């Protein structure tokens, strides 16, 4: 309906994966969709630092969604698991088709009970927060969305902020880059890796509607670590150029 | 007077705007508002322009239709600006227009973009003085030595000229983006609300405003809630409400304290645990709030529904109307393409009197250029479409139906076929008659009820 260019192969690939992962713990599809939602949200937060000030309401709502997911993942322990894993399997989990995400939410609408969902507790007490932060191996990842948030809200010096990428988003980019050979990777070699390109995912997001301020997304090129920085640099150059023109006029 | 939502037979009357499917960004309509008499209809667009339409005087011989709306005045209200300190553009898009009640021959309106509110005076000129002694008709000065007789200049009729001039500019009071302006019932003050603060202004004073609400946390990292809309009570000049992104409405009394940080009332409906999802908060975010004519009720719009609240009951709305419940299972996709953040407005039917009895019908927009009406009395609702295909005047609009699931009946539209780029965010109802203005992306539709 909305997203064009999604490769069905990915979903089929997942079924193969579940078959071959006999010895490895199969990730429940709820966790998959939750992770995918988290990734999508982080990308959304990141992508709106353009020329016009981002919509604060939208940013707050997305950040709250990220926080909700984090809290839930912290509660059921999956947050720690994802951070400590460094295999290709983790990268696959993160970059699952959003089509699966949507399919699952339809299932929910039809009344299927998803384990752990009903126990969602909004009132995440500070005691609990402290306990879980001690068990987390990478505490900075939790901080990352908060840093992101403060970057979003206080656009005091946007040039600085553009350089500050949150840790978890960096991890996403690194994952996209990494071609570390291991047996798990080889198992997935038949899967169409081009789907995991950030721009394919973004193209899907962008296909039907304007993102308002995020028009420069359409020129968003290859998903590498340096690309994100060079986009910053080109943004800065554009900005300088525009300021030059305006000051001269 | 107003009848039931389904008792009114809506007919196409007019459509304004380009026929092109290719929409110029600047032409996107961002606000629509009738003035207090309904004679004038203003629209604001993304390009910072205001276009005002005027209703023709009713033709006594043609009792079948009410007057048509024709362009009365067009002016550039706001220009794009650049904030050098933050290296950010300030959009010229007109977020809201509010009319002042008419006090003399001229009309006044407030228009606002993200940062600056302007008071515009719209006045007519249909006479001009002729016969000056010292000036020629073209304005050149005459040589005084050539003047042999004196005459008194007289006013002669000329072609009507409508002039818009900015009388006040209320600037530099908002760090965040202005989402609402509301004129007080004292007609001397008004409020402007941005994401985190609400300011009170006097219409005559531009260099000073009073901050009456401030929800900015000391540490911005703790920000979890923003202000989404605000409105003054229609009768009580010390009372106003503001809505939030968490689905709450706070009613404040300015007599209680200078800074209304503590609400007098907090309206919030407890969450339905069976409908809980990661998108629950986003869809509970209120995009519009409107008092009823008497001020006893207020209406709020969130992503999927319209709720009517009794000001005397804080713990839940008295009525809830589902606008497009079939979207609930599509929230993930709508989150992905950002449609879930669309801010739909809502409005009441017009009313001759300030009597509660007449706030009967609710109108709000949806996707696929559909808009919905709910009749509070009969509990019936109708879905109509704003489309050029129905543009025969006096042809009654055919009700539309969306098929949520299962077999699609003839003339029904399936959810997957809906065009989510065609959204109706802004609608307005004539204050006294059954005439409505519905804005699609770049066109303005005017519908009237079928007069017998």
Could you describe the 3D structure shown?
The complex is a heterodimer of chains A (249) and B (452). In chain A, helix 2 (29-46) runs antiparallel to helix 3 (56-75), helix 2 packs across helix 6 (98-109) and helix 3 runs antiparallel to helix 8. Chain A is globular and about 65 Å long. The longest helix of chain A has 24 residues, at 225-248. With 249 residues, chain A is mainly alpha-helical. Helices cover 63% and strands 0% of the residues of chain A. Chain B is an all-beta fold and 452 residues long. Chain B has a single domain (10-140, 151-449), classed as YVTN repeat-like/Quinoprotein amine dehydrogenase (Methylamine Dehydrogenase, Chain H), CATH 2.130.10.10. Helices cover 2% and strands 42% of the residues of chain B. Chain B has two helices and 32 strands. Chain B has helices at residues 280-284, 331-336; strands spanning 10-16, 29-34, 40-45, 49-55, 69-76, 81-83, 88-90, 96-99, 107-112, 117-130, 154-170, 178-183, 189-194, 197-202, 205-214, 227-232, 239-244, 249-253, 265-267, 288-291, 297-301, 305-310, 319-322, 346-348, 361-365, 370-375, 381-385, 401-403, 412-414, 426-429, 435-439, 444-449. In chain B, the strands form nine sheets. In chain B, strands 1-32-31-30 form a four-stranded antiparallel beta sheet, with no helix packed on it. The longest helix of chain B has 6 residues, at 331-336. The radius of gyration of chain B is 24 Å and the shape is globular. The two termini of chain B are 15 Å apart. Mean pLDDT of chain B is 92; it is low at 1-5. Chain B: Keywords: Repeat, WD repeat.
């Amino acid at each position: 309906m909305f997203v064009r260019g999604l490769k069905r192969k990915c979903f089929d690939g997942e079924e193969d994966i579940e078959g071959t992962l006999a010895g490895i713990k199969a990730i429940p599809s709820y966790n998959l969709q939750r992770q995918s939602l988290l990734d999508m949200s982080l990308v959304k937060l990141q992508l709106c630092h353009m020329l016009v000030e981002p919509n604060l309401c939208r940013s707050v709502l997305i950040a709250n969604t990220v926080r909700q997911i984090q809290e839930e993942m912290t509660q059921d322990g999956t947050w720690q698991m994802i951070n400590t894993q460094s295999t290709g399997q983790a990268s696959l989990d993160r970059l699952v088709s959003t089509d699966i995400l949507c399919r699952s939410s339809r299932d929910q609408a039809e009344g299927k009970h998803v384990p752990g969902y009903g126990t969602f507790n909004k009132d995440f007490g500070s005691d609990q927060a402290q306990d879980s932060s001690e068990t987390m191996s990478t505490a900075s990842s939790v901080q990352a969305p908060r840093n992101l948030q403060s970057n979003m809200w206080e656009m005091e010096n946007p040039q600085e902020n553009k350089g500050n990428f949150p840790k978890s988003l960096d991890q996403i980019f690194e994952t996209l880059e990494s071609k570390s050979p291991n047996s798990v990777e080889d198992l997935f070699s038949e899967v169409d890796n081009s789907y995991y390109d950030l721009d394919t995912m973004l193209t899907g997001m962008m296909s039907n509607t304007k993102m308002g301020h995020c028009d420069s997304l359409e020129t968003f090129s290859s998903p590498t670590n340096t690309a994100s920085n060079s986009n910053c640099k080109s943004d800065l150059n554009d900005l300088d150029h525009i300021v030059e023109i305006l000051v001269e006029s | 007077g107003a009848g039931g939502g389904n008792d009114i037979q809506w007919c196409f009357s007019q459509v304004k705007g380009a026929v092109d499917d290719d929409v110029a960004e600047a032409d996107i309509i961002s606000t629509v508002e009738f003035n207090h008499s309904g004679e004038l209809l203003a629209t604001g667009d993304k390009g910072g322009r205001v276009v005002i339409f005027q209703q023709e005087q009713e033709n006594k011989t043609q009792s079948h239709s009410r007057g048509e709306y024709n362009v009365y005045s067009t002016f550039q209200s706001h220009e794009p600006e650049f904030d050098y300190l933050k290296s950010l553009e300030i959009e010229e898009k007109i977020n809201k227009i509010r009319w002042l009640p008419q006090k003399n021959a001229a009309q006044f309106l407030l228009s606002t973009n993200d940062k600056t509110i302007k008071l515009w005076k719209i006045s007519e000129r249909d006479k001009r003085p002729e016969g000056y002694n010292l000036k020629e008709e073209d304005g050149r000065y005459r040589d005084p030595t050539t003047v042999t007789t004196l005459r008194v200049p007289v006013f002669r009729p000329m072609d009507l000229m409508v002039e818009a001039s900015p009388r006040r500019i209320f600037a530099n009071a908002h760090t965040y983006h202005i989402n609402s302006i509301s004129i007080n019932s004292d007609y001397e003050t008004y409020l402007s609300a941005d994401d985190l603060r609400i300011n009170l202004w006097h219409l005559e004073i531009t260099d000073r405003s009073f901050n009456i609400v401030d929800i900015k946390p000391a540490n911005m990292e703790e920000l979890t809630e923003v202000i989404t809309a605000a409105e003054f009570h229609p009768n009580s000049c010390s009372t106003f409400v503001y809505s939030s992104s968490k689905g709450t409405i706070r009613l404040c009394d300015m007599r209680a304290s200078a800074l209304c940080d503590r609400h007098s009332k907090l309206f919030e409906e407890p969450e339905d645990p069976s409908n809980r999802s990661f998108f629950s908060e986003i869809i509970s975010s209120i995009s519009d709030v409107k008092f009823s004519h008497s001020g006893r009720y207020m209406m709020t719009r969130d992503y999927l529904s319209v709720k009517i609240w009794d000001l005397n009951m804080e713990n839940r709305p008295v009525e809830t109307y589902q606008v497009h419940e079939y979207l609930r299972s599509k929230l993930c996709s709508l989150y992905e393409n950002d449609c879930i953040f669309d801010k739909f407005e809502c409005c009441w039917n017009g009313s001759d009197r300030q009597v509660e009895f007449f706030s009967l019908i609710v109108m709000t927009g949806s996707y696929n250029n559909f808009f919905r009406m709910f009749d509070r009395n009969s509990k019936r609702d109708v879905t109509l479409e704003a489309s050029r295909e129905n543009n025969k005047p006096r042809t009654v609009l055919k009700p539309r139906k969306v098929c949520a699931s299962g077999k699609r009946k003839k003339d029904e539209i399936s959810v997957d076929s809906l065009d989510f780029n065609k959204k109706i965010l802004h609608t307005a109802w004539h204050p006294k008659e059954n005439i409505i203005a519905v804005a699609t992306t770049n066109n303005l539709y005017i519908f009237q009820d079928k007069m017998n």
